């Protein structure tokens, strides 16, 4: 500023020397306050020499012009500093958002707007906001460059302002790069989560497909077995069909068990009001028992050697006559087992568990451990020769009341169904 004033005085002195003022003439300088210059106060009237401005007037006009220029530049710089402070505040809020602050929880006013909750949308909106700030900075820098080129600002202040703008631009670009990296990481995490979910779904679908294939992969609908590997109260099979009212029946099945003591309960049939309507059980050190309407007959069967055995029991309500067959051979017979009691219809048939209520309240100590197959029920007493033919696999005669077919047997609690040819496996046991 002093340099500009000195240059103006020098120009005025030089002009006065060229005009050659008369000896003894003096210059009178009148101080003019800045407010008067800004308000456009007219200059005091000065004597004119030959119609042109006197040297005093020229000097005074130059000083006023310089002062007005300086005031205007101060106002421009003040406005630009305010814009820079506003941009710096917004940049700080962007840094807070990028650092993990939740939208809408900042102590100050949020001028960036409500951001969506989705992380990818947050990153995209922040990127757009930062790009807007960058554009404004570039516009401000361009405006400052135009103003600097039009005004004679000090070189050190101009360089400092350019450095500040360059630093702000560098910080802005750095934040944009960080947000782009975070967006990429979020995208990668989302892709990894989606791939993990798809992998789990594919595994489940494959498992379901395998189970469906396994259930339909038997050579024939009856070429399967139910496996009950543990003595628990939750592994069991269930026959979907129920029994009609019966006055006689024959139950045959293949079983293999090495459990001790006792094989447990190969099957049980319960009806409302009577949980032991029909039960075949070997519990503890007791022999195998057949229960009809909670009445008991002990059967001379021995099957706890870990080999496949074919078991058949027959019963008729007339005098309560019963017979017991093992591997086609009749080993026992008796009477007075619930005589004249018809088997009640509409109950539940369970494989591997003894029922204390209809379809439930199993006791693990009475559970069957092993494998079952070819569980069939007829509504009559089979002849001895028919039972022999079934046991030696010379005939295939499914039950006319309950046949052993895949779609009639459900398994629960970890029990499973596997393909099997019982006659072939029995030959391996021999």
Describe this structure in words.
This protein has a seven-stranded antiparallel β-sheet with strand order 10-9-8-3-12-1-14. By secondary structure, the protein is of the alpha+beta class. A hairpin with a 4-residue loop joins strand 8 and strand 9 (321-326). Residues 1-32, 34-50 and 101-117 have low confidence and may be disordered. Helices cover 41% and strands 20% of the residues. It contains seven helices and 14 strands. Helix 4 (119-150) packs antiparallel against helix 5.
Compact summary:
The chain is of the alpha+beta class and 430 residues long. 41% of the residues lie in helices and 20% in strands.
Key features of this structure:
430 residues, seven-stranded antiparallel beta sheet, 14 strands, rod-shaped, disordered N terminus
Provide the fold topology.
Layout: H1 2-19, H2 34-38, H3 55-98, H4 119-150, H5 155-215, E1 224-228, E2 236-239, E3 248-256, E4 264-271, E5 274-282, E6 289-292, E7 295-298, E8 308-316, E9 321-326, E10 329-334, E11 348-351, E12 370-378, H6 384-391, E13 409-412, E14 416-419, H7 422-429
Antiparallel strand pairs: 1-12, 1-14, 2-11, 2-13, 3-8, 3-12, 4-5, 4-11, 5-6, 6-7, 8-9, 9-10
Helix pairs in contact: 1-3, 3-4, 3-5, 4-5
């Amino acid at each position: 500023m002093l340099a500009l004033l000195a240059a103006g005085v020098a120009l005025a002195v030089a002009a006065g020397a060229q005009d050659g003022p008369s000896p003894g003439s003096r210059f009178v300088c009148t101080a003019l306050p800045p407010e008067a210059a800004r308000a456009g106060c007219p200059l005091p009237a000065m004597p004119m020499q030959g119609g042109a401005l006197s040297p005093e007037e020229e000097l005074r006009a130059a000083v006023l012009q310089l002062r007005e220029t300086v005031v205007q530049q101060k106002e421009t710089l003040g406005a630009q500093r305010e814009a820079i402070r506003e941009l710096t505040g917004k940049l700080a809020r962007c840094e807070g958002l990028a650092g993990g602050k939740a939208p809408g929880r900042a102590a100050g006013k949020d001028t960036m707007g409500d951001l969506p909750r989705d992380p990818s949308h947050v990153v995209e909106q922040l990127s757009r906001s930062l790009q807007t700030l960058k554009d404004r900075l570039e516009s401000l820098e361009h405006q400052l460059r135009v103003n600097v080129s039009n005004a004679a600002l000090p070189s050190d202040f101009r360089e400092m302002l350019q450095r500040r703008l360059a630093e702000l631009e560098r910080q802005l670009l750095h934040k944009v790069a960080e947000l782009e990296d975070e967006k990429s990481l979020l995208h990668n995490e989302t892709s990894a989560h989606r791939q993990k979910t798809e992998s789990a779904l594919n595994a489940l679908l494959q498992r379901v497909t395998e189970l469906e294939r396994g259930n339909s992969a038997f050579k024939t609908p009856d070429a399967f077995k139910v496996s009950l590997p543990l003595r628990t109260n939750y592994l069991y099979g269930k026959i979907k069909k129920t029994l009609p009212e019966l006055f006689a029946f024959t139950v045959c099945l293949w079983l293999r068990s090495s459990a001790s003591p006792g094989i447990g309960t190969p099957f049980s049939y319960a009806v409302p009001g009577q949980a032991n309507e029909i039960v075949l059980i070997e519990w503890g050190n007791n022999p195998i028992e057949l229960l009809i309407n909670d009445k008991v007959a002990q059967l001379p069967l021995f099957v706890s050697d870990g080999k496949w055995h074919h078991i058949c029991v027959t019963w008729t309500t007339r005098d309560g006559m019963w017979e017991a067959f093992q591997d086609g051979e009749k080993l026992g017979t008796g009477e007075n087992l619930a005589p004249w009691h018809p088997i009640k219809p509409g109950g539940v048939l369970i494989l591997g568990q003894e029922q204390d209520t209809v379809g439930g309240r199993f006791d693990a100590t009475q559970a069957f451990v092993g494998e079952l197959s070819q569980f069939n029920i007829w509504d009559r007493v089979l002849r001895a020769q028919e039972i022999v033919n079934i046991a030696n696999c010379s005939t295939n005669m499914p039950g006319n009341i309950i046949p052993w077919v895949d779609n009639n047997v459900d398994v629960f609690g970890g029990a499973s169904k596997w393909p099997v040819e019982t006659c072939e496996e029995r030959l391996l046991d021999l």
